[in-house]
Structures are given as structure tokens and as C-alpha cells.
Design goal:
The protein has 350 residues and is α/β, with parallel strands linked by helices. The chain has two domains: 184 residues, P-loop containing nucleotide triphosphate hydrolases (Rossmann fold, 3-Layer(aba) Sandwich); 80 residues. The protein is built from nine helices and twelve strands. Helix 7 links the parallel strand 7 and strand 8. The radius of gyration is 22 Å and the shape is globular. The relative contact order is 0.13. The protein binds adenosine-5'-diphosphate (ADP) and magnesium ion. The site of magnesium ion (MG) has 3 residues, from helix 2.
């Protein structure tokens, strides 16, 4: 009897350990993606680490050219030919998929477990194919339906999830508005029922009202289906209501990572502060809007220390040495020497 209880206890412990391990749908450690170019090696993604809990959403924000698209592509191994270095670990449900051979990755991961809505995807739909054929394509490629009808049913289901009328399946892309085409692109990523999707700037080519509509679609998806997603954007203001977590990217690195509520209330990294100050609000005059003087550094031979130091008003001597990453008690990480004293910002500096 005692033995039985012991075994049951052990089993519970084991279940708990598995739960703990797979609490995160995604856990990325030290991801690096460098490109070879005629001018040198571009460090587009440099030792990026973060974890995303199942069912949660995360926003990756940063200026154009900071490596957001490259990071999304690194996660889904959609790499250009001029890759110089591609390293790190990427745990999907606790399993390191960086170890997978390309064939296995293509068959088992991309689309089936993780899908990307690429930047400008709404303008990349094939003009001569009906949208039904495009949405159903991932299903057919991965043998997730036995017949074309079944694939079409799944496409119709995905359309419902993103609020596209089902009779639009028989239309051609040019017969749809920009907002509808973006929804079709999102539906295509959902049709294989993946564990998470990455949306790369899904609203950047749209007018304000359509942007709001797409954000509503994402909010609904989050509430109604069990999916985790990463939203990539250069516009910090579009994401505040929808994201659970926020990652701020600067010059190939994540400089701050925390829960979005805390982040939008009190950004800590000086770059995050400036980024937030640049968001127009109803109360602020245009003159009060923050503008960040200077340019991000080149990603070919970037500075050894903090990559923001050159533009930072609070630069200290330490900053040109190694950039630190401090983890606060609540798990928040900040790549800034100002937080070296156990998470408390050095009083002299502000
Ligand atoms: N295939 C490539 N070869 C060389 N450099 C690239 C390639 N793709 C992107 N880059 C460079 O990597 C950096 C990050 O680009 P990207 O990931 O597109 O940034 P973002 O999406 O944040 O605008 C930029 O300097 C860009 O010029
Ligand atoms: Mg991009």
C-alpha cells in the first residue's frame, strides 16, 4: 500500500516535471542568425533568449532593421542562402527542434506545429489562384486531408475563425480588400492547426480602421482558440492591448523582456523608454513626442558593449564593455547596466 502511494507520488512528480517543462510552448536560448555579405557578416539576430507560455501572446517591437523578421525566420528555419551562422536552442513543447534535420523540420514542424504569416503576405497571394486553393495548400502538402473537399472544409473553418465570409473562398485575391487579404493570410497559417503562429507586421500596410479590425481578429483568436502567437511590429502602439508579453529588440538583440502590462506601464531599458515616449497620445503635444537622436549601429561589427550606448543619455563607462542581462525577481530581463543593483535602478542616473 505504502509502495503504491509512493509510486503514485512519483508519477505525480513526473507529470509535474513534464508540465513544468512544457509550460512554455516555445523556449529560445541564445539564438543567433548571421548573414554573409560582400561588406562583412551581418549579426541580424544575436543571442536572443525568451520563453512563451502556452496560450499566451507576445509582441516583438523594434525599429526597422533591428532583426525582427530574421528572428521570426530563424524560429521557423526559413533561411536565405547567405547564412553564415545559425545557432542556439529552440524548444518547442520542451523538445529542441534546432536538432532536427531539415527534412524532419519541414515535415513535422513548419505549418503543422508552427506557422508564419510573412511580412507583406497579403500582397503575395497568387493572383491567378482562387483563395480556397491557397488556403488549402498547406493541408494538402502535409496530407492533413484525404480529399480536396475535406481540405476545403478546413479552409472554410479557418475563414470562420478570422471572420471572412465562407463564399469568399471562390474569389480571386484581386476581388478582396487589403484587410480581407490579410485575414486570408492569417487563415492560411491557422489551417493546419499549429501550436503557435508568428505574424510579421500584419497591419503595417493597412489603414487605421483596417488595422484595428485585424487586431480585433487576433483578440478573438486569442479568446476563442487555444493558440499562442508572436506579433512582430515596429509600432509599439498597435500591440499594447493584445500582448501578454513584450520583447523589445534593438540592433539584433532583445534588450528588455517582460509581461506586457508591466512593460507598457514602466518600460525600464533607456531604449524602451524612448520608444514609448515616441508614441503619440491624446494628451501629449507633438512637441513632447520623444525622438531618438542618432542611428542604430551597423550590424556588421556592432559595438562590443551595449549597442544602444552611443544614443543613450545615461551612458556610463561600463556600457562600452560587455552588455549585461539582468534578470529581476519577477523574471523580467533588462540588458542595461543601470539595473545592476538587484533590479533597482541606480539612483544617480535619473
Ligand atoms: N539575407 C540577408 N542578407 C544580408 N543581410 C540581411 C539579410 N536579411 C536581412 N538582413 C539584414 O539584417 C538586418 C535585420 O533585418 P530584418 O530582420 O529584416 O529587420 P526588421 O524585420 O526588424 O526590419 C538588417 O540589417 C538587414 O539589412
Ligand atoms: Mg521586418
Amino acid at each position: 500500500m505504502a509502495n503504491k502511494a509512493k509510486t503514485a507520488g512519483k508519477k505525480q512528480e513526473k507529470d509535474k516535471a513534464i508540465d513544468e517543462k512544457t509550460k512554455n510552448v516555445l523556449d529560445i536560448r541564445d539564438m543567433q542568425l548571421y548573414f554573409q555579405t560582400g561588406k562583412g557578416i551581418v549579426q541580424a539576430v544575436d543571442k536572443v533568449s525568451f520563453a512563451l507560455e502556452r496560450g499566451k501572446s507576445m509582441v516583438i517591437v523594434g525599429e526597422s532593421g533591428c532583426g525582427k523578421t530574421s528572428l521570426g525566420r530563424a524560429i521557423l528555419r526559413l533561411l536565405p542562402e547567405n547564412v553564415y551562422k545559425y545557432e542556439g536552442s529552440c524548444l518547442l513543447n520542451g523538445v529542441d527542434i534546432m536538432e532536427y534535420k531539415n527534412e524532419k523540420f519541414r515535415k513535422e514542424i513548419r505549418w503543422k506545429r508552427a506557422a508564419l504569416v510573412p511580412q507583406s503576405s497579403m500582397n503575395s497571394l497568387n493572383p491567378v489562384l482562387k483563395v480556397s486553393d491557397q488556403v488549402a495548400e498547406p493541408i494538402l502538402i502535409h496530407d492533413l486531408a484525404e480529399t480536396k473537399e475535406e481540405a476545403r472544409d478546413k479552409a472554410a473553418e479557418a475563414f470562420k475563425k478570422v471572420g471572412v465570409p465562407v463564399d469568399f473562398l471562390d474569389r480571386y485575391p484581386f476581388e478582396l480588400s487589403g484587410g480581407m487579404r490579410q485575414r486570408v493570410a492569417i487563415a492560411t497559417s491557422l489551417v493546419t492547426d499549429p501550436d503557435f503562429i508568428i505574424l510579421d507586421e500584419p497591419t503595417s500596410a493597412l489603414d487605421m480602421l483596417t488595422q484595428a479590425n485585424i487586431m480585433n481578429v487576433l483578440t478573438r483568436l486569442k479568446e476563442e482558440i487555444d493558440i499562442s502567437f508572436i506579433l512582430i511590429t515596429h509600432d509599439v502602439s498597435t500591440s499594447s492591448e493584445i500582448a501578454d508579453m513584450a520583447a523589445i529588440m534593438y540592433a539584433g538583440q532583445i534588450v528588455e523582456f517582460t509581461d506586457a502590462y508591466t512593460f507598457f506601464g514602466t518600460p525600464l531599458h533607456p531604449y524602451s523608454e524612448r520608444l514609448m515616449a515616441s508614441v503619440p497620445t491624446l494628451e501629449a503635444d507633438d512637441e513632447e513626442l520623444g525622438f531618438i537622436p542618432g542611428q542604430p549601429p551597423s550590424l556588421i561589427n556592432p559595438p562590443e558593449g551595449c549597442r544602444f550606448a552611443e544614443r543613450c543619455e545615461e551612458e556610463m563607462e561600463l556600457c562600452s564593455e560587455e552588455p549585461p542581462t539582468f534578470e529581476m525577481d519577477d523574471g523580467r530581463t533588462v540588458k542595461c547596466w543601470l539595473y545592476r543593483e538587484g533590479g533597482e535602478r541606480d539612483g544617480n542616473n535619473k
